[in-house]
Amino acid sequence: MALFDLQSRRLLRLARGYPGEASFSPNGRLLAYDAEGPIFVHDLASGKTRPVTSNRGDNIEDSGPIWSPDGQTIVYEHGVDLRAVQIDGTNDQQLTSAGSYADGCQSFSPAGGRIAFRRDRIDSLTGTGVATVILMDADGRNQQAVASQLNP
């Protein structure tokens, strides 16, 4: 994972290993990213990087970090479920329990009170699946499907 500074024309390496997804904070001062395990937050001004999630002993990688509009919370994928954590690494909580499904492609509403995400279910015998867009409150409650599509 690397960050290219357009002004200085310098490439800053943030992490070694397999890079994942990255997301700038709403104010543009921080960068959240995943790299083979936890979610990291990099402070662009100080150059310091710190993990905000940790290994729970389950060998499941965290990925796909997105920021809440107020910049205080990161929602991320933990295996097939969605979780939320404060940017200081506290209050890490599970938002969804996908079971045999996979939740991802999350996005906050502009005011931050709702999260939209996609839940995929794939039949292991036929390879067909159903993708469903679900809305929920930012704390994971009140999940409701709004659209579904069969994926042959």
Describe the structure.
With 152 residues, this protein is an all-beta fold. The protein has no helices and 14 strands. It has strands at 2-5, 10-13, 19-24, 30-35, 39-43, 49-51, 62-67, 73-78, 81-86, 93-94, 102-108, 114-122, 129-137, 144-151. The strands form four sheets. Strands 3-4-5-6 form a four-stranded antiparallel β-sheet, with no helix packed on it. The mean pLDDT is 87.
Helix count from the secondary structure assignment: 0
Instruction: Please mark out the parts with pLDDT under 50 across 5 or more consecutive residues, or reply none.
Output: none
Question: Span between N and C termini?
Answer: 34 Å
Number of domains: 1
Task: Return the CATH topology.
Answer: Neuraminidase
Element string (H = helix, E = strand): EEEEEEEEEEEEEE
Summarize the entry for a quick read.
The chain has 152 residues and is an all-beta fold. It has strands at 2-5, 10-13, 19-24, 30-35, 39-43, 49-51, 62-67, 73-78, 81-86, 93-94, 102-108, 114-122, 129-137, 144-151.
